[in-house]
Amino acid sequence: YSVKRRDAPQPQAKGEKTPISDTSYVGIDAILEQMRRKAMKQGFEFNVMVVGQSGLGKSTLMNTLFKSKVSRKSVQPNVEERIPKTVEIKSVSHDVEEKGVRMKLTVIDTPGFGDQINNENCWQPIMKFINDQYEAYLQEEININRKKRIPDTRVHCCIYFIPPTGHCLRPLDVEFMRHLSKVVNIVPVIAKADTLTLEERDSFKKTIREELRANGIDVYPQKEFDEDAEDRMINDKIREMIPFAVVGSDQEYQVNGKRILGRKTKWGTIEGNIHEL
Ligand code: GDP
Question: Where is the chain membrane-spanning (predicted)?
Fold first, then answer.
């Protein structure tokens, strides 16, 4: 039988593709369009956590990545209050939109991490926070009167800032990543990479990769993300670049007629970016 609708498409010339956006079209390939439309309407949620000692450029990098003020400045007026006595966990949410795709971005900051004299176990409150979000989500999921859309506060990604010492990881870095890599996707980055020369950066990256391996730290992208040969190839490329070297800036400059977010120094202007190699 034939499906007849008031708004049925007019007969088309041979070889012309049926527009799948037309609601009257019936076919399996229309599913893709339906899913796309639904996803666009709902938008996406992305929760990113930033961890590292104060002053490593966490707030600046978040503002660079999303090209707007998505993170508060870490410096507070009162010296006494600048470094909290314990690790705090603060979330700030924003609605960001790019080319019609909406995203609810939440930046989870962890002021106080690694800032004490004794930093032993300062990963614990962060681990607890992450696990609590899984628990809350699970409870909502198993609820009989399940919400149509469960609010997702789970941490999708944790960016860990390594100080640009050029030497090796500190015990604090190893401890944090060793524990947290079991519960969250860790993306290690070398903070303020503009302070290292290219050779220093390359050898620092190599040292960090070896240390991660030696300590059994499995960072993003983990092996289970390699679902097929193509995934593996893409992920292997990323693995070679880890840890990313990053430069953050929220100042705009004009360079060769192009407006960029960069750091103007006595020696030139460096573009704020994630440097691959
Ligand atoms: P947070 O405490 O980790 O959030 O650090 P901030 O983002 O407040 O940055 C601390 C200081 O470092 C500020 O003066 C920034 O301008 C500077 N800074 C941020 N990112 C970079 C970077 O990539 N390179 C350099 N050289 N300085 C940076």
Answer: none
